[in-house]
Protein backbone atom coordinates (compact mmCIF):
# COMPACT_ATOMS: atom_id res chain seq x y z
CA UNK A 1 0.00 0.00 0.00
CA UNK A 2 1.03 3.60 -0.61
CA UNK A 3 3.21 5.49 1.83
CA UNK A 4 0.43 8.01 2.51
CA UNK A 5 -1.60 5.20 4.11
CA UNK A 6 -1.04 4.70 7.82
CA UNK A 7 -1.95 1.47 9.57
CA UNK A 8 -3.19 1.63 13.16
CA UNK A 9 -2.77 -1.89 14.51
CA UNK A 10 -5.38 -2.39 17.24
CA UNK A 11 -5.12 -4.82 20.14
CA UNK A 12 -7.60 -5.80 22.80
CA UNK A 13 -5.23 -4.96 25.66
CA UNK A 14 -4.73 -7.07 28.76
CA UNK A 15 -3.75 -6.92 32.42
CA UNK A 16 -0.85 -9.18 31.40
CA UNK A 17 1.91 -8.12 28.97
CA UNK A 18 1.35 -10.78 26.31
CA UNK A 19 -1.36 -9.12 24.22
CA UNK A 20 0.66 -5.94 23.93
CA UNK A 21 3.82 -7.89 23.04
CA UNK A 22 1.92 -9.79 20.35
CA UNK A 23 0.46 -6.60 18.84
CA UNK A 24 3.84 -4.83 18.90
CA UNK A 25 5.51 -7.76 17.15
CA UNK A 26 2.68 -8.03 14.64
CA UNK A 27 2.98 -4.30 13.87
CA UNK A 28 6.71 -4.72 13.40
CA UNK A 29 6.16 -7.54 10.91
CA UNK A 30 3.51 -5.52 9.05
CA UNK A 31 5.94 -2.59 8.94
CA UNK A 32 8.37 -4.72 6.95
CA UNK A 33 5.78 -4.95 4.14
CA UNK A 34 4.25 -1.51 4.34
CA UNK A 35 5.83 1.72 3.06
CA UNK A 36 3.77 4.06 5.26
CA UNK A 37 3.74 4.49 9.04
CA UNK A 38 2.49 1.68 11.25
CA UNK A 39 1.34 2.51 14.80
CA UNK A 40 -0.38 0.60 17.57
CA UNK A 41 -3.24 1.27 19.99
CA UNK A 42 -5.33 -0.69 22.47
CA UNK A 43 -8.99 -0.85 23.36
CA UNK A 44 -8.51 -1.63 27.04
CA UNK A 45 -5.87 -1.56 29.73
CA UNK A 46 -2.78 -1.01 27.56
CA UNK A 47 -1.46 2.26 26.15
CA UNK A 48 -1.70 4.11 23.85
CA UNK A 49 -5.47 4.19 23.65
CA UNK A 50 -7.18 4.61 20.29
CA UNK A 51 -7.42 8.43 20.42
CA UNK A 52 -3.69 8.65 21.18
CA UNK A 53 -3.01 6.11 18.45
CA UNK A 54 -4.74 8.33 15.89
CA UNK A 55 -2.84 11.37 17.17
CA UNK A 56 0.43 9.51 16.72
CA UNK A 57 0.04 9.93 12.94
CA UNK A 58 0.12 13.75 13.26
CA UNK A 59 2.91 15.15 11.09
CA UNK A 60 3.30 11.90 9.13
CA UNK A 61 1.46 13.23 6.07
CA UNK A 62 -0.89 10.26 5.83
CA UNK A 63 -4.10 10.81 3.90
CA UNK A 64 -5.77 7.60 5.06
CA UNK A 65 -5.52 5.57 8.26
CA UNK A 66 -6.57 1.93 8.20
CA UNK A 67 -7.67 0.75 11.65
CA UNK A 68 -6.63 -2.90 11.66
CA UNK A 69 -8.01 -5.00 14.51
CA UNK A 70 -5.79 -7.89 15.54
CA UNK A 71 -8.84 -9.84 16.57
CA UNK A 72 -9.83 -13.27 15.30
CA UNK A 73 -13.50 -12.57 14.75
CA UNK A 74 -16.06 -9.82 14.79
CA UNK A 75 -17.73 -9.11 18.10
CA UNK A 76 -18.80 -6.17 20.19
CA UNK A 77 -15.23 -4.81 20.19
CA UNK A 78 -14.80 -4.70 16.41
CA UNK A 79 -18.39 -3.84 15.48
CA UNK A 80 -19.20 -1.28 18.14
CA UNK A 81 -16.35 -0.26 20.45
CA UNK A 82 -13.63 0.39 17.85
CA UNK A 83 -15.87 2.44 15.49
CA UNK A 84 -17.11 4.41 18.51
CA UNK A 85 -13.57 5.14 19.70
CA UNK A 86 -12.61 6.19 16.17
CA UNK A 87 -15.80 8.29 15.83
CA UNK A 88 -16.66 6.56 12.57
CA UNK A 89 -20.01 5.22 11.43
CA UNK A 90 -20.25 1.60 12.67
CA UNK A 91 -22.23 0.51 9.61
CA UNK A 92 -20.14 2.23 6.94
CA UNK A 93 -16.98 1.42 8.91
CA UNK A 94 -15.34 4.55 7.57
CA UNK A 95 -15.12 8.18 8.47
CA UNK A 96 -12.51 10.88 8.98
CA UNK A 97 -10.62 12.83 11.57
CA UNK A 98 -8.54 16.01 11.69
CA UNK A 99 -4.81 15.73 12.20
CA UNK A 100 -2.83 18.98 12.32
CA UNK A 101 -5.83 20.66 10.69
CA UNK A 102 -5.92 18.27 7.73
CA UNK A 103 -8.77 15.87 7.04
CA UNK A 104 -7.64 12.24 7.16
CA UNK A 105 -9.82 9.39 6.01
CA UNK A 106 -10.32 6.45 8.38
CA UNK A 107 -11.18 2.93 7.19
CA UNK A 108 -11.94 0.02 9.54
CA UNK A 109 -10.46 -3.27 8.35
CA UNK A 110 -12.09 -6.60 9.02
CA UNK A 111 -10.72 -8.88 11.75
CA UNK A 112 -8.43 -11.76 10.76
CA UNK A 113 -11.25 -14.28 10.37
CA UNK A 114 -10.95 -17.91 9.42
CA UNK A 115 -8.14 -18.70 7.07
CA UNK A 116 -6.14 -21.81 6.20
CA UNK A 117 -3.07 -20.12 7.66
CA UNK A 118 -4.75 -19.73 11.06
CA UNK A 119 -5.87 -23.36 11.07
CA UNK A 120 -2.39 -24.52 10.06
CA UNK A 121 -0.77 -22.46 12.82
CA UNK A 122 -3.29 -23.77 15.39
CA UNK A 123 -2.61 -27.36 14.34
CA UNK A 124 1.12 -26.70 14.73
CA UNK A 125 0.47 -25.45 18.30
CA UNK A 126 -1.51 -28.64 19.03
CA UNK A 127 1.37 -30.78 17.77
CA UNK A 128 3.88 -28.85 19.87
CA UNK A 129 1.81 -29.55 23.00
CA UNK A 130 2.57 -33.28 22.67
CA UNK A 131 6.34 -32.85 22.84
CA UNK B 1 -0.93 -36.60 15.01
CA UNK B 2 -2.17 -40.04 15.96
CA UNK B 3 -5.85 -40.94 15.84
CA UNK B 4 -5.92 -41.58 19.61
CA UNK B 5 -5.25 -37.86 20.15
CA UNK B 6 -8.34 -35.67 20.40
CA UNK B 7 -8.20 -31.94 19.85
CA UNK B 8 -10.54 -29.72 21.85
CA UNK B 9 -10.62 -26.41 19.96
CA UNK B 10 -11.38 -23.68 22.49
CA UNK B 11 -12.99 -20.34 21.74
CA UNK B 12 -13.60 -17.29 23.88
CA UNK B 13 -17.32 -17.23 23.16
CA UNK B 14 -19.33 -14.12 22.43
CA UNK B 15 -22.80 -12.60 22.67
CA UNK B 16 -22.61 -12.38 18.86
CA UNK B 17 -22.38 -15.44 16.57
CA UNK B 18 -19.03 -14.64 14.92
CA UNK B 19 -16.61 -16.11 17.46
CA UNK B 20 -18.47 -19.42 17.45
CA UNK B 21 -18.61 -19.48 13.65
CA UNK B 22 -14.87 -18.79 13.46
CA UNK B 23 -14.06 -21.56 15.96
CA UNK B 24 -16.35 -24.05 14.21
CA UNK B 25 -14.74 -23.31 10.84
CA UNK B 26 -11.26 -23.47 12.32
CA UNK B 27 -12.08 -26.87 13.89
CA UNK B 28 -13.37 -28.08 10.54
CA UNK B 29 -10.13 -27.05 8.81
CA UNK B 30 -8.04 -28.69 11.56
CA UNK B 31 -10.13 -31.84 11.16
CA UNK B 32 -8.98 -32.09 7.54
CA UNK B 33 -5.38 -32.54 8.77
CA UNK B 34 -5.98 -34.57 11.92
CA UNK B 35 -6.82 -38.29 12.03
CA UNK B 36 -8.39 -38.19 15.52
CA UNK B 37 -11.57 -36.50 16.75
CA UNK B 38 -11.78 -32.71 16.81
CA UNK B 39 -14.36 -31.06 19.10
CA UNK B 40 -15.10 -27.52 20.17
CA UNK B 41 -15.87 -25.76 23.45
CA UNK B 42 -16.17 -22.19 24.73
CA UNK B 43 -15.06 -20.34 27.80
CA UNK B 44 -17.98 -17.92 27.94
CA UNK B 45 -21.46 -17.44 26.56
CA UNK B 46 -21.40 -20.10 23.80
CA UNK B 47 -22.04 -23.82 24.12
CA UNK B 48 -20.70 -26.41 24.72
CA UNK B 49 -18.72 -25.28 27.76
CA UNK B 50 -15.34 -26.82 28.48
CA UNK B 51 -16.63 -29.60 30.76
CA UNK B 52 -19.14 -30.64 28.09
CA UNK B 53 -16.41 -30.39 25.46
CA UNK B 54 -14.26 -32.88 27.39
CA UNK B 55 -17.26 -35.19 27.83
CA UNK B 56 -17.85 -35.11 24.08
CA UNK B 57 -14.76 -37.34 23.66
CA UNK B 58 -16.36 -40.14 25.71
CA UNK B 59 -16.45 -43.32 23.66
CA UNK B 60 -13.96 -42.02 21.10
CA UNK B 61 -11.06 -44.06 22.50
CA UNK B 62 -8.71 -41.09 22.74
CA UNK B 63 -5.79 -41.44 25.14
CA UNK B 64 -4.82 -37.77 25.03
CA UNK B 65 -6.81 -34.58 24.56
CA UNK B 66 -5.00 -31.44 23.44
CA UNK B 67 -6.84 -28.31 24.58
CA UNK B 68 -6.11 -25.85 21.79
CA UNK B 69 -7.00 -22.21 22.50
CA UNK B 70 -7.93 -20.20 19.42
CA UNK B 71 -6.59 -17.10 21.09
CA UNK B 72 -3.91 -14.80 19.72
CA UNK B 73 -1.92 -14.37 22.91
CA UNK B 74 -1.65 -15.59 26.45
CA UNK B 75 -3.74 -13.80 29.03
CA UNK B 76 -5.92 -14.57 32.01
CA UNK B 77 -8.11 -16.84 29.87
CA UNK B 78 -5.32 -19.11 28.60
CA UNK B 79 -3.13 -19.04 31.71
CA UNK B 80 -5.76 -19.31 34.42
CA UNK B 81 -9.33 -19.83 33.28
CA UNK B 82 -8.80 -22.65 30.78
CA UNK B 83 -6.51 -24.73 33.07
CA UNK B 84 -9.02 -24.22 35.90
CA UNK B 85 -11.94 -25.36 33.75
CA UNK B 86 -9.94 -28.40 32.64
CA UNK B 87 -8.83 -29.09 36.24
CA UNK B 88 -5.18 -29.21 35.17
CA UNK B 89 -2.17 -27.63 36.84
CA UNK B 90 -1.83 -24.10 35.41
CA UNK B 91 1.98 -24.23 35.62
CA UNK B 92 2.51 -27.70 34.19
CA UNK B 93 -0.34 -27.09 31.71
CA UNK B 94 -1.12 -30.79 31.73
CA UNK B 95 -3.21 -33.18 33.75
CA UNK B 96 -5.80 -35.88 33.22
CA UNK B 97 -9.48 -36.65 33.41
CA UNK B 98 -11.67 -39.75 33.49
CA UNK B 99 -13.79 -40.53 30.46
CA UNK B 100 -15.96 -43.66 30.64
CA UNK B 101 -13.79 -44.80 33.56
CA UNK B 102 -10.53 -44.51 31.58
CA UNK B 103 -7.76 -42.06 32.39
CA UNK B 104 -7.18 -39.58 29.57
CA UNK B 105 -4.20 -37.23 29.50
CA UNK B 106 -4.87 -33.54 28.94
CA UNK B 107 -2.30 -31.16 27.44
CA UNK B 108 -2.80 -27.41 27.08
CA UNK B 109 -1.44 -26.02 23.81
CA UNK B 110 -0.07 -22.52 23.52
CA UNK B 111 -2.13 -19.78 21.88
CA UNK B 112 -1.46 -18.87 18.25
CA UNK B 113 1.08 -16.17 19.06
CA UNK B 114 2.95 -13.98 16.62
CA UNK B 115 3.74 -15.59 13.34
CA UNK B 116 4.54 -14.35 9.85
CA UNK B 117 1.29 -15.92 8.66
CA UNK B 118 -0.77 -13.82 11.10
CA UNK B 119 1.02 -10.62 10.06
CA UNK B 120 0.53 -11.46 6.37
CA UNK B 121 -3.18 -12.13 6.89
CA UNK B 122 -3.56 -8.88 8.86
CA UNK B 123 -1.82 -6.92 6.12
CA UNK B 124 -4.17 -8.50 3.59
CA UNK B 125 -7.16 -7.33 5.70
CA UNK B 126 -5.69 -3.79 5.77
CA UNK B 127 -5.33 -3.81 1.98
CA UNK B 128 -8.92 -5.03 1.53
CA UNK B 129 -10.19 -2.09 3.62
CA UNK B 130 -9.01 0.34 0.93
CA UNK B 131 -11.12 -1.18 -1.83
From TrEMBL, chains A, B:
CDD domains: CbiX_SirB_N. It holds the Pfam family CbiX. It is an enzyme of class 4 (lyase). Coiled coil: none annotated. InterPro entries: CbiX-like (IPR002762), Sirohydro_Cobaltochel/CbiX (IPR050963). One of its GO terms (molecular function) is sirohydrochlorin cobaltochelatase activity. Keywords: Cobalamin biosynthesis, Cobalt, Lyase, Metal-binding. Its EC number is 4.99.1.3. It comes from the Archaea. SUPFAM superfamilies: Chelatase (SSF53800). This is Sirohydrochlorin nickelochelatase. It comes from Candidatus Methanocrinis alkalitolerans. The lineage of its organism: Archaea, Methanobacteriati, Methanobacteriota, Stenosarchaea group, Methanomicrobia. The gene is cfbA.
